[in-house]
Write a structure and sequence with these properties.
- It is built from six helices and five strands; from the N terminus they run βββααββαααα.
- By secondary structure, it is α+β, with helices and mostly antiparallel strands.
- It has one domain: Cytochrome Bc1 Complex, Chain A, domain 1 (2-Layer Sandwich), CATH 3.30.830.10.
- The chain has a three-stranded antiparallel beta sheet with strand order 3-5-4.
- A hairpin with a 4-residue loop joins β4 and β5.
């Protein structure tokens, strides 16, 4: 006989009663919510930096920098970094927004130390290899050329320029062809 599921899902939802907040000595705030019903964990972090801090002549810098964090570190080249992550079936990524750069990871609980180590390594000792950075920049320039041909995307850019005039929000997070072209390693 099937037992109906309870309609009370409040214990499954995160809230103040089941999230622990800790501020460590270097100022980083850590929020933790345990779910002992799952053998996996998710890590998400935000750093107060983003495209709003890009110099106007180098818009797209935060975007390229965040994407470049997976191109290699002092201890792992690009392939070795991806091999470490894939060998345990985990995910790791970095992205940049207007106000922050974020990182996220999903892995088995037993791989927490490995993933925290790779996150720290990527943030503290990225190498930004010339060849990979050039490839990444060219890919972004291609995406920007495609965006320039899309009426909807261009309308959104013009809208932001009008609404957010004289404010960092007026600029596209990915930058523009001429500003990305001005960025060098």
């Amino acid at each position: 006989m099937n037992t109906p599921l309870s309609n009370d899902h409040s214990s499954a939802l995160p809230g103040p009663e089941n999230i622990t907040r800790t501020v460590i000595p270097n100022g980083i705030t850590i929020l933790v919510r345990s779910n002992f019903n799952s053998p996996t964990l998710s890590i998400k972090g935000y750093i107060k930096t983003g495209s709003s801090l890009d110099p106007v002549e180098k818009l797209g810098l935060a975007y390229l920098t965040a994407n470049g964090l997976m191109l290699g570190t002092a201890n792992h080249n690009t392939q070795a970094l991806y091999n470490e992550i894939e060998s345990v079936g985990a995910r790791l990524g970095f992205s940049s927004g207007t106000l922050s750069t974020s990182f996220s990871s999903h892995c088995l609980s037993e791989d927490l130390d490995l993933m925290l180590g790779l996150i720290a390594e990527s943030l503290q000792s990225p190498t930004f290899p010339e060849k990979e950075c050039r490839r990444q920049k060219n890919q972004l320039l291609t995406a920007l050329a495609i965006r320039a041909q899309d009426t909807s995307s261009m309308a959104a850019l013009v809208f932001d320029q009008i609404v957010f005039n004289n404010h960092p929000y007026q600029y596209a997070e990915e930058g523009y062809a001429e500003t990305v072209a001005a960025i060098s390693r």
